[in-house]
Amino acid sequence: MENLSMIGIISIATAGLTIAIGSVGPALGQGRAVSQALSSIAQQPDEANTITRTLFVGLAMIESTAIYCFVVTMILIFANPFWNFFLQQ
Q1: pTM for the whole thing?
Q2: Distance (Å, whole) CA 48 – CA 18
Q3: Which residues are within 8 A (CB) of 43 and not within 5 positions of it... i.e. 6 or more apart?
Q4: Residue 13 burial (CB < 10 Å; 0-12/13-18/19+)?
Q5: Checking phi first, is residue 44 left (phi over 0); if not, alpha (psi -120 to 50) or beta?
Q6: CA distance 16 to 20
């Protein structure tokens, strides 16, 4: 099998694996964070503002992980540096 074909196959497989793990993991994390925040607000309604603020900061950090995985996937598919290296040879 040719080098370009191998790079394409590995890039696509890695991109698929990255987006699969990168979307499932943060989704589970966000669900758990919201569940725990709602449970905490139900137990301590006076602290709802603090819990909500902390929840939103946590959700933003979890979301950044998913966006990072998306960016890595796009780089693997559209801007893989190995394509140019093997095309020049």
Answers
A1: 0.77
A2: 35
A3: none
A4: exposed
A5: beta
A6: 6
Predicted local confidence at residue 55, as pLDDT: 95
Q: Which residue in this structure is represented by tokens 């796009």?
A: 74
In 24-50, which positions are buried (b, 16+ CB within 10 angstroms) versus exposed (e)? Answer: eebeebbeebeeebeebbeeeeeeeee
DSSP annotation string for 14-57: HHHHHHHHHHHHHHHHHHHHHHHHHHHHHH-GGGHHHHHHHHHH
10-residue mean pLDDT series, the chain (89 residues) = 83 93 94 96 95 96 95 90 78
